Amino acid sequence: MGRPRRTSAGAITGFVLRLARESIPRTQVAMAEALGVDVDTLQGWESGRRPLANMRAGALLELRRRLPALGADVGLVRWLDAAMDADRIVAAGLDDGGGPHPLAGWVHTRDTAHMLAWALNGTTPPALAGRLPRPRRGPVAPSPQLATGDRAVFFDRLRATTEHAARQGESGVLLHRQALYLASYDHSPDAAAWTAHTLHGRRDVLARRGWSPQWAAARSTATALARLGDPQPLLDFIDPALADDDTAEAANLNYWALWLGAMAVPQSDDTFMRDRDLAGWDALTLLRGLAVGLVEAPGFVDLYAHSLHALLAVAPWLPQAAGPLASPLRQRTAQLLDGVQLSARSRRELGRVHYVLDNNRT
Fold first, then answer.
1. CA-CA distance, 301 to 346, in Å (whole number)?
2. What proportion of the chain, given as a percentage, has pLDDT over 70?
């Protein structure tokens, strides 16, 4: 038998539900009455002891519709799906239930990653930063962070899962890629050393030019290394494996579209990235996501710059459609061009983005 877990199976979703209730605001007693359930049931949902994911589909749909009708912050309610995804991944890492790992079944998104970072490291999702209540006295948790022992077990099993997936060949590609990337969230010295060693062992996939079946793994490897403080592999990836290759450029935009929520349909594997028709996602939503995420972090700023440049190349009408998004993005690109160290390619491409935005002022 495994060790007993201390983190409830639906803790992340329950925490988001609690935030939604408090945004109305309502007490648990008043909320339970409004929803037509007893207080114990609501407390079970919020604590995670009764995971929302275990509800009947119709009942869960009704709950999600009732919350905004009762005055809950819609921006919080929309995070319930990502929280349930994150709870499934955490449960797979803590329980000995067997069966397919959820990281092998679908390509997860930034929202799910943010929920996981919140539970694993206490890092508040940027979109929720202004929606959290002030810290209170007493036993109320300030975040859905895992208990220390559960966190250690989760990462230990995640590393074992990563190594097992690497031995599965093509059938383990998605699981290996996503598990290895998620393992980079463990910043403890020994874990960081393991992750860096494992990532550097995959440098061969970074050296390939243009599109290949390992392209998505190469992108995840490069971004994970940048997360650990080594941006050079990401800079190297942008030139030989991404830039000026039509299929790779399409794959990059398709991946961003799913990651940033511009693609509504979940994807079960990485094959959707090869769609050169760029179908199934909204370009304006993708522009908004890239603009919000444009950060100064070495390597990442170059990837964002290149992706913005590629997006405007395939959708030249976007500056006219961007509305209030255009002005802050124009200002942000100007700031980055003036004050951030960029590669020659990134400076050229970001300069073009700024030029296009500047010439389309309304």
1. 8
2. 96
Task: Give the pTM.
Answer: 0.91
Dihedral angle at the C-alpha atoms of 323, 329, 330, 334, nearest 10 degrees? 170
Q: What is the DSSP string of 127-184?
A: GGTTTSPPP-SSS--SS-PPPHHHHHHHHHHHHHHHHHHHTSGGGGHHHHHHHHHHHT
Query: Shortest CA distance to 71 belongs to which of 43, 44, 31, 37?
Result: 31
Structure tokens at 78: 């929309």
The amino acid sitting at 103 is L
Q: What's the chain's length in residues?
A: 362
Compute the distance between CA of residue 223 and CA of residue 192 in angstroms, rounded to an integer: 14
Q: Read off the pLDDT of residues 135-159 as tens digits, 9 standing for 90 and up.
A: 666 566 788 999 999 999 999 999 9
Q: Is residue 145 within 8 Å of residue 187, measured between CB atoms?
A: no
Q: Tokens standing for 43? A: 């407390």
Q: How many CA within 13 A on the CB side of residue 344?
A: 1
